[in-house]
Design brief:
The complex is a heterodimer of chains A (about 300) and B (about 250). With about 300 residues, chain A is mainly α. Chain A has one domain: MetI-like (MetI-like fold, Orthogonal Bundle). Chain A contains 12 helices and no strands. The radius of gyration of chain A is 23 Å and the shape is elongated. Chain B has about 250 residues and is an alpha/beta fold. In chain B, helix 4 runs parallel beside helix 5. In chain B, strand 1 and strand 2 form a beta hairpin. Classes of the chains: A mainly alpha (about 300), B alpha/beta (about 250). At the A-B interface, helix 9 and helix 10 of A face strand 6, helix 2 and helix 4 of B. Chain B: It catalyses: glutathione(out) + ATP + H2O = glutathione(in) + ADP + phosphate + H(+). Chain B: The complex is composed of two ATP-binding proteins (GsiA), two transmembrane proteins (GsiC and GsiD) and a solute-binding protein (GsiB). Chain B: One of its GO terms (molecular function) is ATP hydrolysis activity.
Chain lengths: ~300, ~250
């Protein structure tokens, strides 16, 4: 099937942009056949829409307390019940998805370029550059990521921004390792030797030759790590070091629901299920991306 | 044109020391095709990498076009020597179009880049200018090798190093590429160093041949000597016998 597409893209009269589009299309055709990946993508898309439209969809103000209707079980009025301050859990879940997606997106945007550049430089230059950069990576990897994030947030103060920084601090080293490993296999290829022979600068070789070839595996790795980012963010929230209490955040919601969990399961269960489904979806997307971007299929 | 004196290359220290090149010397006249033969691991490719500036830790003297070649090449140093590699599948960047692959050397050297120049370079190696818009995976092995030759020649070098340029191609394509190389040498006044394990190819292309063994030049033969099996060293006879070179040819 793929072979047919490559041949359709074949005629030499097609400009490169069209060929790029053809490659994207063929990538999409592989991805589309992956049921679990499409399911994950669907869930994440729905979540993104819900997050954007939260003020329109949410039946109640997520911060509105109502001490006459605390800890109500799920009903037609409150789909997911109310918490110990009478706030609507469903509305808080919707607003919480905003925080979660914001954290996921900001961490990915911070982490992918940093990890990529450090890893590619270490792999390409080798020698002492490699030694120094990889020892730094080892130091970060030696500490469990949640502990490192905890320490960082404890030092800087709790809050969503600091949680993002702390998670980013723990998420870049695996990406740097991956980028380095990819670069090591690329840098000995003949086309890199040819580029060195015609006098291309290291800067040009890294950004025009090495980085484009590292991108597929980096994209897969970042997508897979999004699941871990959600869990770490929720963990920080649960420990009271992420988003601060009045604001709706899934981890924080579980943390407050924990006290009443035995008698009023819905307060903790719904944010827990939300975390589960979201991180699972990112994992499914990552797995499907890995298959679709596999060069042996392309 | 090329004068190599006492070239040595070694990696590692103590027991781990390996020495791909153990002090070898030879010289190549302008416009000549000089062949280098020997079995795998004898240092043929290392020799080319040293002359081409890809290895930097060598000692000795390499003179190209009357000027000593530095270990580390920068900027315009890179224009005199270019190389064509063995593997047609690894020689081109998989995500770069042929046009980009050919304009990159011009960009690196700060030379004028134009579609006309790239079209000329493609025509010179017998490809249609429309190939500029294709990606390497849409080309056959022989076409890729032609692009690799075009890339090597676009900077107008004096010397082209050929590292088994046809060993990965099938026989009919091999002949086409060898004839193309021979024609280009005459047209552009190039000097070649051709590394190969195929004695027939070397005998066809080269005027003189060096036989290498463990990092040294064992002996130097003319192409006629090679064809008639007039060698002096036992090793060369073995090499000729194992390659089943038709002595009557």
């Amino acid at each position: 099937m793929l072979h047919g597409i490559a041949e359709k893209a074949g005629p030499a009269t097609l400009p490169p942009e069209v060929l790029q589009t053809a490659r994207l299309l063929s990538f999409w055709r592989v991805f589309r056949t992956d049921l679990s990946g499409m399911l994950g993508l669907g869930v994440v898309c729905v979540l993104a829409i819900l997050a954007v439209l939260a003020p329109l969809i949410a039946p109640y103000d997520p911060y509105l307390q109502s001490l006459t209707s605390t800890l109500l079980p799920p009903s037609a009025a409150h789909f997911a019940g109310t918490d110990e301050l009478g706030r609507d859990v469903f509305s808080r879940l919707l607003y919480g998805s905003r925080t979660t997606l914001l954290i996921v997106v900001s961490v990915s945007v911070l982490v992918a370029p940093i990890g990529l550049i450090i890893g590619v430089c270490a792999g390409y230059f080798g020698g002492w550059v490699d030694k120094v950069l990889m020892r730094i990576v080892d130091i970060f990897l030696a500490l469990p990521s949640l502990v490192l994030a905890l320490g960082f947030v404890a030092a800087l103060g709790a809050g969503t921004e600091n949680a993002v920084l702390a998670i980013a601090l723990t998420a870049w080293p695996p990406i740097a390792r991956l980028a380095r490993a990819e670069t090591l296999t690329i840098r000995n290829s003949d086309f890199i030797a040819a580029a060195r022979m015609y006098g291309a600068s290291s800067f040009r070789i890294i950004f025009a030759h090495v980085v484009p070839l590292c991108m597929p595996s980096i994209i897969v790795r970042v997508t897979l790590s999004m699941a871990a980012v959600i869990l770490t963010a929720a963990g920080l929230g649960f420990l009271g070091l992420g988003a601060q209490p009045p604001s709706a955040e899934w981890g924080t919601m579980i943390s407050t629901g924990r006290k009443v969990m035995i008698d009023h399961w819905w307060v903790a269960a719904f944010p827990g299920v939300a975390i589960l489904i979201t991180s699972l979806s990112f994992n499914l997307i990552g797995d499907a991306l890995r298959d679709a971007l596999d060069p042996r299929k392309g | 044109m090329i004068d190599v004196q006492n070239l040595e290359l070694s990696f590692g220290r103590g027991h781990h020391r390996v020495q791909p090149l153990a002090g070898l010397s030879f010289s190549v006249a302008e416009g000549e095709t000089y062949g280098i033969v020997g079995e795998s691991g004898c240092g043929k490719s290392s020799l080319l990498r040293c002359i081409g500036g890809l290895e930097t830790a060598w000692t000795g003297k390499v003179e190209i076009a009357g000027r000593p070649a530095p270990q580390v090449r920068k900027g315009a140093d890179c224009r005199t020597v270019q190389m064509v590699f063995q593997d047609p599948y690894g020689t081109l960047h998989p995500r770069h179009t042929i046009g980009l692959a050919l304009s990159e050397p011009l960009r690196a050297q700060g030379m004028e880049r134009s579609t006309a120049k790239i079209a000329d370079a493609l025509r010179a190696v017998g490809l249609s200018p429309s190939f500029a818009e294709r990606f390497p995976h849409q080309l056959s092995g022989g076409q890729r090798q032609r692009v690799a030759i075009a890339r090597a020649l676009i900077l107008k070098p004096d010397v082209v190093l050929l590292d088994e340029p046809t060993s990965a191609l099938d026989v009919s394509v091999q002949a086409e590429i060898l004839n193309l190389l021979a024609d280009l040498r005459k047209e552009m006044g190039l000097t070649y160093i051709l590394v190969s394990h195929d004695l027939a190819v070397v005998a066809h292309m080269c005027s003189r041949v060096a036989v290498m063994q463990s990092g040294k030049v064992l002996e130097e033969l003319t192409a006629t000597d090679l064809r008639h099996g007039r060698a002096t060293h036992e090793y060369t006879f073995e090499l000729i016998a194992s390659s089943k070179l038709d002595i009557a040819a």
